[in-house]
TrEMBL record:
Residues 7-64 form the BED-type domain. This is BED-type domain-containing protein. GO terms for molecular function: DNA binding; zinc ion binding. PROSITE patterns: ZF_BED.
Length: 215
């Protein structure tokens, strides 16, 4: 069943009860009294009566079933849409995206141009863009962004990468490039990094230096 993200504001909690608090994965349906493991994920399917991953609820009112059914379908649709846009999740709040360690601002409900005040080149503008955001499900986006930035953070911590690298142009440029490429991106191998890419980079830097000397 994997792990479950538990959110207190999930409306599923209005329709079920923890059997053994604070264990949030073993729940009892408030309508039929059925108890099962699997947390709110299964409870949603139980209430939505999807026949997927959980027994159907025999007593849930139709309007509640409709609500959960819609919620699950919306989530699936958003997931499909989001696959190529994983990294544009920070919305218009560029600091939120760039600084993995920064505390979140209390409110992020401003809509529009974004904050382009600080030494912004194109990258900053791209990161703060609100592409397609209005069509996306806020709730899902937050969860997915949380997953993504945790992976990035882990990469930093496990490799002793200094936190200020998060502000580095080449870091942002790399992430932006990945987002454009999409889900089929294959990262460079040890060999590619060590031989062909290094050669190209050395040649590139030499070219720049040559230009500089010619001036
Ligand atoms: Zn039930």
């Amino acid at each position: 069943m994997g792990r479950f993200k538990v959110r207190k504001d999930d409306i599923t909690w209005d329709h079920c009860t923890m059997v053994e608090p604070p264990n949030k994965t073993y729940l009892k349906c408030n309508y039929c009294g059925e108890k099962f493991h699997g947390g709110v994920y299964r409870m949603k399917h139980h209430l939505a009566r999807t026949r997927k991953d959980a027994k159907l609820c025999s007593k849930v009112p139709d309007n509640v079933t409709a609500l959960f059914d819609k919620m699950l379908k919306d989530k699936e649709n958003e997931k499909a849409k989001q696959n190529d846009e994983m990294f544009d999740l920070g919305g218009n709040d560029e600091d939120n995206f760039i600084d993995v360690n920064a505390p979140r601002p209390p409110k992020r409900d401003h809509v529009g141009g974004g904050s382009v005040g600080n030494r912004g080149g194109n990258i900053d503008k791209i990161f703060s863009k609100k592409a397609n955001q209005t069509t996306l499900n806020e709730h899902w986006k937050k969860e997915e962004r949380e997953k993504a930035i945790r992976k990035i953070a882990r990469f930093f911590y496990c490799n002793n990468i200094a936190f200020n690298v998060a502000n580095d142009f080449f870091f942002k440029d790399m992430v932006q490039c990945l987002t454009k490429f999409g889900p089929r991106f294959k990262p460079p191998s040890y060999h590619e990094l060590r031989v062909p890419l290094l050669k190209k980079e050395v040649a590139y830097v030499n070219d720049i230096m040559q230009d500089f000397r010619d001036k």
